[in-house]
Amino acid sequence: MAAYESLKLEKGMYGAPGKSFTQVLEGLDPSARYEGTPLEGLDAYQRQLKRFGIHAGGPGSDRIEKFFQTGDSAALFPEYVARSVRQGMEQADLLPSLTATVTEVDSMDYRTIASVPTEDDRSLKAV
């Protein structure tokens, strides 16, 4: 039996300080274990959806009730809502199409540096 099939899911996993539900799952069932297998490319949350036979997107998606068939599968529902909301926000957001890079900052302060060359710096000189 693969590790993802035996994980005990509970709502307390959402309360881990500084970690998302998916990060907690990845800690228990790292994606690196699945390289070269049919599950490669799925994150820990997606493997749990597969475990419970929940199809959460596209044609033939399951009804919401499928999440609540067991206590373990019910723990997946808040992450489904969070991902759906995030996906909707990203589809309506043009900013990712306009930005070249994004910097995640885990502090109250972020300072950039800038190059402000003088006229002398911009002129061509003999080498």
Number of domains: 1
Distance between the termini: 68 Å
Total beta strands? 0
Q: Roughly what percent helix?
A: 25-40%
Q: What is the arithmetic mean of pLDDT?
A: 89
The arrangement of helices and strands along the chain is HHHHHH
Report the structural category: mainly alpha
Which term fits the overall shape?
Answer: elongated
Could you give a short account of the major beta sheet?
none
pLDDT < 50 stretches: none
> Strand fraction band?
under 5%
Gyration radius from CA atoms, angstroms: 22 Å
Number of helices: 6
Structure description:
The chain is an all-alpha fold and 127 residues long. Helices cover 35% and strands 0% of the residues. It has helices at 21-28, 44-51, 71-74, 77-92, 95-98, 119-122. It has one domain. It contains 6 helices and no strands. The model has no long low-confidence stretch (mean pLDDT 89).
Detail the topology: elements first, then pairings:
Elements: H1 21-28, H2 44-51, H3 71-74, H4 77-92, H5 95-98, H6 119-122
